[in-house]
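Sanity check record (used in CI):
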Amino acid sequence: MMRWLLLLCCLAGRASAEQAVLRFGVMAHSTDLKTRMQYAPLADYLSTALAPMKAELVFLSPDQLSVRQVSYQADFLLADPYVYLMLKANRYLQPPLLSQVSLLPRGELAQLGGTMICMKDNPRCDLTQLSDAQIASSGDYSLSGYAAQRLELQQLGIQLDARRLRHLHSGQEVVEQVLDKFVDIGFVRSGTLEDLTKQDSETAALLSVLNPQQLANVPFVSSTRLYPEWPVLAMPGVPPELQEKLIPALLQFNDFARQHQLSYGFSAPADYSGVEYALQQLQLPPFSPVAAPSAFHWFHQYLNYLLVTLGLLMLVAATFLVLRRHNLLQHETIAQLTHANQELQLNDQQHHAALNSSKQLLFIKLDIQGRILGCNNYALKLLGTGFDQATNVFLPDWIQEPQQRAALVPALHKLQSEPGLTESLELSLQLSSREIVHLDADLSLLPGAPSDKPAFALIGTDVSRRKAIKQKLQKSVQRLDQLLEQSPAVILAFEPKSMQLNYISPNCFTLHLKSAHDILRTPDWLQSTIAAEHKTAIDEQFRHWVESNYSGVLKYSYPLQRGQAASLYRDVTDPSYSQLWIETQLCAVRDDDGNLVEIIGSQIDVTDNQLSQMKRELAASVFTQAREGIFITNNQGTILDLNSSFCRITGYSETEALGRQIGMLGGNLAEESYQQKLRKKLVSDGFWEGELQGRRKSGESMVLSFTLSAVRDAERNVQHFVALFSDITQQKAQEEKLRFIAHYDSLTGLPNRLLLTDRIEQSMSQAKRKKSKMAVIFIDLDGFKAVNDSLGHEAGDYLLIELANRMRTAMRENDTLARLGGDEFIALITELAAPEDAVPFADRLLAAAGKPVQIGQNTVRVSASIGITVFPQPEAADAASLLRQADLAMYHAKRQGKNQYSFWQPQLEQEPEPQKE
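Expected output for Diguanylate cyclase domain-containing protein:
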């Protein structure tokens, strides 16, 4: 024996040293190379994600519909929804962990359907011809390859002939059978036809789809509605911690799958009640009607009774032979039997007297139909009737429970066929007084009665009081269990010396995410829930409590770390769930002599209180350390509290600011009318956000970004206002600078092309509205390039600035002069009565551009060529068209000799553009 124990220890040590393996099962009709290649990346990924654990793929046939069979081969199973429901009905199985999804370029698709295909040239490729069609499915336990199509046809009023339906092993076989015309119609999973099109579009073109559905944003054609994709199942006995590791790994597999261009991934578990409803409607397994038990079933069930009966018959036969053999001896013992008979009669009389005098036992004599033939005095008293009224009454009429009433007569027949047996029954009799009496009774066949008129004895004990006490106790226990389950406190009980946990209430899962059974099996569980940084202080508290002979109540709190398991149920960023604060209270229980017998306690979740305290501390820290200025006022605007950033931004000290009105910040807030308007806005909306002009204590102007909120009491009355502000003076100045750069020329300060285009469009709208005219004048300097080349770029820039100032002076205040770039300018003249009204402006611009300019020691002179176009025009035009027309007119002026203007005419579109200087 010792050698066998040593061998087992060695084998156990060797097994523990081997690498742990996770067996991931895939339900597949076929385990060809394509199927294995499809899921091989998943096994490689899981081996990496769950290292050092190794993941192995196990392919299972849909015929293996026993949870025990699957559990022998796999820890987890990816199965058809139909198979999942079969396993669920076969044996207890927890809900799916996840569901498979199809990865599409635009997202994920968590549903699938079924498709009915046929050859286009087949005359039976019609829903009305299905009753005569030969049909092949992808498997009798396939949702999308059989059940979904059958339900869709049933709802269309089409019943399939089982003799014309054959179940194959895969969708590929179904497609081949349809193409070879061995069957008329094929049931396959949605997407099969699309896969065939990618591989062989010519063959796919020969097929047609029956009953196509209109499904938006679904990349495949389906003949049925859509159902959830395949679930991921955990087999019974798989540790919860292994499930907790697998689930996040599979959820993260989607990124890996997209990188490696895989077509499947995983998501949250889907609702499979629709699949269950479909199978119920079809009355398919496991929801098909149960067949009546066979004769072999009854024979097997009652084999023991048959053997006993046979044995009794053999015993009777043997006894008969013995009696015949000793027939002669019977004559010799007649006298003895006569004497014994007299004694039996005496004993019968004594037993009868004792039976009638009993106040505990109830005796009733019955016939084969349950009619009362006799009873003792206690039975008559209990039934509340006389002997004449009690006899010839059927006992089933007194029985309250229908099940007990229906079981009595069959029990009598059973005892008649099997003498010597005793049936134990629980009976509830309803008396004439409407009182219910509960009996524990033994029913047996009385010997000596004729076989055609058997008699039975029912001997019972009144257990009504005991049953009432038991029911009351059960209700009390149930009530206590309900209170414990609904209680927010977890109840604990410990052995005093070892502090071994003896009991923990069932509601412990809410706090610890473990069942009471798992916790009771964990050694030193209470200490293991306390983090190392809190254990020393709590151990010190416990030691003082023990030294004080367990006086009073020991109370302590600590954070309970529960890891990442909470990510399946709530957001892991929620500290109230991933980390709970537990308050534990312990007290001693003593017997009547004062001896310590047990330590009981409770644990409650005080996370909300702890978080509230942390939030208050955080709010105080934020208020003090925030870079934004914060202050609180009463409902009249008087400052009650402020932070250091308020003083830094405004220049006021805390003493100077407290007790003053917010008008001290200057700007709009200094106006009483504005304060009243702002207060009404806050009272009505509860919130205001915007920018305000203010002043620092030094008088310096500043721009503030303000956020104001109203704080209300329980009656919704405004009690305080909270303000948060920041100094955005420099930001506003920078924005203004950027706005100027975006719309104005950096050299001359004139509007640039962007701002010019906007003003042209505005002027066009105004001209249409006022029925006036506007002119766009294109100005190009003649001879500017020679000045720029001879005197340098600085001289050229100076010349541009000087001429821009002169031309702007020659225009009206509401007109626009813009620089397009280089030596090109645009003048926008509005509110003209006629096109010729633009001529004076052109003359003044020519004169301004032609005046000499003194640049250092040099005097330079240039001229201008001007093109003019007028809006509105007969043809439609936009801002770009007007600029182009003015540009063409300007080139025409250059062509005519420069230093002059020219109006745009349609024929100018045909003239070539000259080269600029």
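The first strand starts at residue 21 and ends at 27. If this sentence no longer matches the regenerated tokens, the check is flagged for review.
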